[in-house]
Please model this.
Amino acid sequence: MILSASIVDSDNLILAKAGTSNSPGEQRQFTDLFFGTTRTYHQQLSVPYDLEEDLGILTITADTRPSGQEFLDRAVLTLVFGLVRTLLLALALQSMFYLMLTKPLLKLTRHVKRVRKGTVHKTLEISRKHQKDEIGLLTSAFNEFQDDIEKQLYHRSLAENELRKHSRDLEVRIAERTQELQENNNALFKANAELEQARQAALHSAKIRGEQLSNLSHEIRTPLNGILGMLELTINEELTGKQYERLDLAHQSGVRLVRLLNSMLDLARLESGKVAIEHTRFNLREIIEESVVMLGQKAYGKNIPLNCDIDPTLPTTLQGDPTRISQVINNLLGNAIKFTHQGEIKLSLDSKPLGQNRLEVIINITDTGIGIPKEALEAIFTPFTQANNDIYESYGGSGMGLALTKELVGAMNGSIKVMSQEQHGSTFSIKLPLTKPEQVASETTTALESHPVILACEESTQLICHRLLSYWKVPCRIVEPYDKKLDFDYHSTGHKTESLVITDQKSLALNMARHHPQRKTIFISYEQPQGIPENLLWLPLPVTQQKLYQKCAEVIGISDPGRMPPARENRSSQSSNYQASEKRKKKILVVEDNAINQLVTEGMLEQLGYEVSLVNNGQDCITACNSESFDLILMDCNMPVMDGYTATKHLRAMASTKEIPIIALTANTLDEHKNRCWESGMSGHIAKPFNKTELGKVLEESL
Model:
């Protein structure tokens, strides 16, 4: 086993060395694989009496083959004897399992197969040696199972016999019921046929009624346009006070008649599902404030305050149907003013989020009017229905306003409810889901924050003003409205003195303007007082966010009002400016077959400053356009010889008239009629009857 040996002293000098080469062998590759080729051993050398002195190192290299070969030989021998013993033990166990387990199980299996085939039904005998082991228990369980099956088969046979009897009875009953059902089906088919016939008749009748309503609307609007147009033209001429009063009353009656006609048409469209709800961007605050301002004077005429309290955090831009929302607000405010004789009317608006880009707007209109009886709260939303006959006799009305309002709110996926007590007023609450588009960051109002305000107003006006001023972060001090001597030094210690006073008390406003000219004063009232000092500004009621902000900015001297948009110009001033504009010099062709409507349209256009030409039908319109040029064409739709739709298509095909604005001037107001106007190539639509302001606005936008 020793291949080499060497002795090296402490200075690494070899003192002695001897060795031989590795001996080859048949199984050398196996021993090298398992144990390696060689093993090296090192031994430190020293003397017994001085173990710490280092004499050198003895190094011995040994061959692993002899010991590895011996280990492999013993391992092979052990493996062979182990396999033989295992095989003998397996054979013995197999014999025992066969005799004790497999043979009885095979016997039981053969018996089960015979029982299954029906060749034998006797109980399987249990051998003596298996009576207390698992084989015996399994055999006993099978015998019990076999007995249970025999009992169940017997009872099943009895049940089958009983079932056959009931089946025969059931077949007889089914035959009887089938005959009855056949008779009922025949009757039902006959009833369905009659119902379908009635439904078709109702649809045909509804279609005829719709067409008749449309035609009737057209026939009514045409003479109404002549009546209202002539009245408006006459009112604009020089008249005595009595004449003006009578003609204005006639004009107002005609306008009410037009509104009644529009309500009837809207209700008919809603019930037939022909009204399309718009989904456009609009400013809800502007829509509501316009309605409040428009109806505020009517309420003031009855000495009833009309207050408007809108959530200042309401987004500037929302998406919905502004026309229908305005119609709903006008109907409810009009009713509140109509049925209220004392107290006040309040419109409040709040909002709450419904999720991402969704907002629920809650509008409450509260009055202190005559109220509604409890038993009539549901009936008031039915068309042509009043709460009771006394209301109709005292106030009149068609009873369509609330019905139309409910239908419009429902069409916008909203809800409306009313709470009322007779002689104590009513509250109408509307909830409308609206879409909130991506908002542009609003401008701040920091210019107002450095100007503290004294607020001395009645409670309702005070609450509205204080809510808006607080939202704008304007320092505000509330005082009694009847305090004629205000203490301006209240905030002088450590705070800036108030520079603006807002009041609805005339005596206080005049006192502040005359004796404290260094302080700015805003006076709130319905009518502008005469002879007020120049340093006193008037804010008309009802108070709106737009007007309050602009008045505060104007009084303080802010040239740029900040985030609030500039107020719209007065329509009358727009009209007068428009009359002086060069656009009024342009030439307009009126295509109208009705002589009265020709006179009305011609008179309005001449008052607006246009040059007017008249023709009677579409063919004459094409002839006139071939001979001379026009800046705009007002086209009636229903005319003899050639209607307005056909004439417009011909004009759009001609090079000389391809770009001329063509405005439909028609009594047809349904959506399908408007769509037909757009499809024929018309640029706009004016519904008869119309007034000079509406006509001028459309022409200004088109030219």
